[in-house]
Amino acid sequence: MTYILKTLNNLENITIKETNNKAKKIFPQTLEIEKLPKLRTITTSYKLIKKFKFKEIQDILKELPKIKDFNIICKIKDNKLKSQELRNQIIAFICKKYKTKPNYKKPEQILYLDIIKHNCLLGINPKIELCKRNYKIRTSNNSLNACLASSLLILAKYNPKNSLLDPFCSDGIIVIEAALKKGKDIYATDPKSTNLFNAQLNSEVAKVKINFQLKQADQIITQLPFVSKRSNPKIIEKQLKNFLELTKKAKKITVITQKTNLLEKLTQDYNLKINLKKELLHGQTNYKIITFHKKS
Asked: Going by CATH, does the domain composed of 146-294 fall within 3.40.50.150?
C-alpha cells in the first residue's frame, strides 16, 4: 500500500528525515511512502489509488473508480485547470455514470485529486489540515505554522537531552513541539506579555512542562523580530543584541525570521558564523532560516 505525504514548500528533506529516510520525493512538496507513520511536519496525507499522466480532463475521467456516497477534493498546482470547475465536472460524471449523488456532509469516501502539472495522483480519504494543533487555543500575531515549527526542530538537530531556550516564544509553538518530542529542560520567554500569556495557556492545554523564564541553554531555537514599517528599529536592534548575548554559551543556534540584514550585521561583533542559510515561502510570507556555529 502506498501513501502520499504533502510537505511545506522547500522542506521535503525535513519530512524525509522524520520518516527515517523511508519516504521518497516524487514531486515538489510531494513524497511517497509505503507505511504511514505519525508525522508532525506534513500538511496532508492520503492513500494512493493510482498515479498517471494526462493531457485533458477526459483522461482523468477515464481513470476514476466506481464510487458512491462520496465527495471530491481537487488540488491543482502548475496547471491551468481550475479546481472548482474540475470538481464539478467529476461530480457530474460520477453521478451520471453510477446513478448516485454526492454527500457533502458525511461521505463514506472522499476522492482526492492531486494534480501537479500534467500528473494526477488519485487518492482516497485524505487527512487534511495536519498542521493544526488542538493545543493551540491562543494565537499570537507572529505565530508560526506548527508543521514549520516542528520542521525547524529537525533542521536545528534538536536533541531532547539538551536544554533549549526560545527567547521570543510567541504563542509557544516551538517549545511545545520540542516538549512533545520528550524534551524536558525547556525554557521560554517573550518581550510581549500577551505572547507569554498565550504560550503559557497553550502549554497547559498541551500538558507539557515549559519553564517560562530566561536562562542560558545548550541550544537556542527561536523566531527573531525584524525591522519593518510597524516596528521601531531601535527597539529591534536592542532585542537582537540581547539575543546575541544569550548565544555566548549556547552550543547550537537556529533562528527563523523574515529579514536578516540587521542580524547579520550585528553578528560580526560576536563569535558566530553562519553555518546554513535557507529560504522558504509559506503562504504569502518569505522566511529565512539560519543556523550558526561558533568560530574556531
From this structure: yes
Dihedral sign computed on CA atoms, order 191, 194, 195, 199: positive
Sign of CA dihedral 16, 22, 24, 29: negative
The CATH topology of domain 3-127 is VC0802-like (3.30.2130)
DSSP 288: E
Q: Report which of 252, 219, 222 is spatially closest to residue 240, judged by C-alpha positions.
A: 222
For residue range 65-74, list pLDDT tens digits in order: 999 899 999 9
What is the C-alpha to C-alpha distance for residues 224 and 167, in angstroms, rounded to an integer?
9
Nearest Cα residue to 185 out of 206, 157, 207, 215: 215
Confidence class for position 7, pLDDT limits 50, 70, 90: very high
Residue found by looking up cell 500528473 in the block: 119
Could you give the CA distance from residue 94 to residue 217 in angstroms, rounded to a whole number? Answer: 59
Average pLDDT value for residue range 104-125: 96
pTM value is 0.93
244 contacts: CB under 8 Å, gap ≥ 6: 266, 267, 269, 270, 272
> What's the whole-number mean pLDDT along residues 218-236?
93
- Round to whole Å and give the CA distance between 85 and 87: 5
